[in-house]
Amino acid sequence: MEWPSQSPDLNLIEHLWEELERCVSGIRARNADKKFSQLQTAWAQIPQSVLTNLPRRCQAVIDSRGFAD
User: Fold this and answer.
1) What's the CA gap between 12 and 31, in Å, rounded?
2) Percent of the chain at pLDDT above 70?
3) DSSP 8-state class, residue 53
4) What's the CA gap between 27 and 12, in Å, rounded?
5) 10-17 long-range Cβ contacts below 8 angstroms, 24+ apart
6) Nearest-angstrom CA–CA distance, 9 and 27
7) Which H or E element spans position 27?
8) In whole angstroms, what is the distance from residue 48 CA to residue 2 CA?
9) For residues 61 and 10, is the Cβ–Cβ distance under 8 A?
10) pTM, to two decimals
11) CB 55 within 8 A of CB 1
12) How far apart are CA 57 and CA 42, in angstroms?
């Protein structure tokens, strides 16, 4: 896959972190074990589309020549 020279960060893990944060935002935990359990559950529920949309996001950057108008 060709990457444009002015490409923003298309790091897949950033999209996964964003999805994970969205899933657990507003959920309080009494201790670290509970929070870890919540994070594990949310991680398992992240839709596959978050992973499979990377080529589409890359193409959008290529189409915009590496920057937003």
Assistant:
1) 29
2) 78
3) T
4) 24
5) 10/54, 10/57, 10/58, 10/61, 12/51, 12/54, 15/50, 15/53, 15/54, 16/46, 16/50, 16/51
6) 29
7) none
8) 23
9) yes
10) 0.59
11) yes
12) 23
Name the one residue in this structure whose structure tokens are 């060709």: 2
DSSP letter at 67 equals S
Q: What is the pLDDT of residues 12-65, one digit of tens each?
A: 777 788 889 998 998 999 999 999 999 999 999 988 887 787 788 778 777 877
Tokens describing residue 8: 């923003």
Q: Which residues are CB-contacts of 53 (< 8 A; sequence separation ≥ 6)?
A: 15
Q: Is 32 helix (H, G, I), strand (E, B) or coil?
A: helix
Distance CA 38, CA 1 (A): 36
Side-chain half-sphere CA neighbours of 5 within 13 A: 0
